[in-house]
UniProtKB/TrEMBL annotation:
It comes from Penicillium olsonii. Pfam families: Dor1. It comes from the Eukaryota. This is Conserved oligomeric Golgi complex subunit 8. The keyword Transport applies. Keywords: Golgi apparatus, Membrane, Protein transport, Transport. It is found in: Golgi apparatus membrane. It is a peripheral membrane protein. Belongs to the COG8 family. GO terms for cellular component: Golgi membrane; Golgi transport complex. Residues 271-282 have a biased composition (Basic and acidic residues). Residues 271-292 are annotated as: Disordered.
Length: 449
């Protein structure tokens, strides 16, 4: 190889030596004379042409970068010394800046009434806690969104999760209010949260008026109300005002359901006007009370179903708190209540408020008897009237299973001088007791398994 380099030295001139040159010269020393003359020149020409094309393509793509690099390289000789001088100036200024900062801190650290420093401290503290403040400010919006979503999905499984999330958010806001009672920001957030919780309370109370309210949904709703509005649970009774609210809501649903019978009631009113406008001694009137019979049958059917459901739901939801209610409802059955001893807490009427269920069955019975007293005289067919009276007895027995039997109250439907009505009542009661006796005998004969 040294001989080859000596032979090629005149042609290479001052070409720098590197590893690539050495590798190529080593490769040339291994080639034959024929390859050097015929194969290597075309190969070198092809490689040179390929490299030229690559350089041309690179120049076309990156010519701007090349121009910029060239310009920066031309100014590098002036920029580097300037950068060095400015870095030296900065290094010399840092100790002086540090000294001034220490002097400033020492001078103003003991001053507490400087308004500018106070504003700066508050601004810096606000800057450090901006994320936390943003999260706190978003709490009322999140709470309102959760309440709205729960009201839209009322009656579904999603409402339970949404209401629980809303209650958790409200509890978090209450904790913040306890930790920072004097903060205007927290007070504002708490006031907005209270407004949202009032909307939630309204939605929950409206949910108690839903049609076909089930026991599970009722217990959940009452449980949420106890968390949202704890003030409703007064110390007077176990259920507080929640029991009264529940009964009022279910009563509103009962009244709205009965109002759906208004078309039949209007026909019954027409028959009432005909009855009052003709001679009562005439046994054959223009109307025998067929429309009134239809109205009363449907009325009693709805009343029986809904009254039983209301009292049953109340007892199941507030059942563990109704030791007094059992005694109060038993007053509908006459002497049974007198035979039971009253709790000492009930001796003083100002000491404890009676439970909501104490007078509610009597109100239901009054609602039923007023309707019967107004429309039952329209029914002149004896069979139809006996059917209605029997239906009333079954309704009384149904509510009596929950301690609200009002069969004896029904005897007041007939007037004192109405002997026919009294005889009909007597006949219906006799048949009803006979049927009940036969059913009891059949039940007693069934062998126990």
């Amino acid at each position: 190889m040294a001989d080859l380099l000596e032979l090629l030295a005149p042609q290479l001139g001052d070409l720098p030596r590197d590893s690539t040159t050495d590798k190529y010269l080593n490769r040339l020393s291994t080639l034959s004379l024929d390859a050097l003359q015929n194969t290597e020149p075309p190969s070198l020409a092809q490689s040179s042409h390929s490299t030229l094309l690559s350089l041309q393509a690179l120049s076309n793509r990156s010519h701007r970068a090349f121009v910029t690099s060239s310009d920066n390289l031309s100014t590098l000789c002036q920029s580097a010394p300037q950068l060095t001088r400015e870095a030296q100036q900065l290094r010399e200024a840092i100790p002086k800046l540090d000294e001034e900062a220490v002097n400033f801190s020492t001078k103003y650290s003991k001053i507490t009434d400087n308004a500018a420093l106070e504003r700066r401290k508050k601004a810096m503290q606000l800057s450090r806690n901006v994320d936390r403040l943003s999260d706190i400010l978003e709490l009322p919006t999140l709470l309102s969104t959760a309440v709205s979503a729960a009201s839209v999905n009322s009656g579904t499984g999603a409402s339970s999760t949404t209401y629980s999330s809303a209650l958790d958010l409200h509890a978090h806001i209450k904790r913040l209010q306890t930790l920072y009672p004097e903060s205007p920001l927290i007070q504002n957030v708490a006031s907005q949260a209270e407004a949202a919780m009032k909307d939630m309370t309204s939605n929950l109370i409206t949910g108690l008026r839903a049609q076909n309210l089930r026991l599970a949904a009722g217990m959940r709703t009452v449980g949420w109300l106890r968390r949202v509005a704890p003030d409703l649970e007064s110390a007077g009774t176990g259920e507080g005002a929640l029991g009264a609210i529940f009964l009022v809501c279910r009563l509103a649903h009962l009244v709205s359901t009965l109002e759906a019978l208004d078309p039949l009631r209007e026909l019954a009113d027409q028959e009432t006007q005909k009855r009052l406008g003709k001679d009562k001694s005439d046994p054959n009137g223009p109307s025998g009370g067929q429309q009134t019979d239809r109205y009363l049958k449907r009325y009693i059917e709805i009343f029986r179903e809904q009254s039983f459901a209301i009292v049953s739901l109340y007892k199941n939801i507030f059942g563990s708190e109704q030791s007094e209610s059992e005694l109060a409802i038993s007053g509908l059955r006459g002497a049974d209540a007198k035979s039971k001893p009253k709790p000492a807490a009930l001796d003083d009427p100002m000491q404890r408020v009676p439970p909501a269920l104490a007078t509610f069955p009597m109100y239901l019975v009054q609602l039923l008897t007023d309707t019967m007293r107004a429309y039952l005289p329209n029914v002149r067919d004896r069979t139809s009237k006996e059917s209605l009276l029997t239906q009333l007895l079954y309704c009384a027995a149904s509510l009596g299973r929950l301690g609200g039997d009002f069969s004896m109250v029904l005897t007041e439907l007939s007037e004192e001088d109405d002997e026919d009505m009294a005889q009909e009542w007597e006949e219906v009661m006799r048949k009803h007791r006979a049927l009940a006796g036969r059913l009891e005998q059949l039940t007693s004969r069934v062998p126990a398994h």
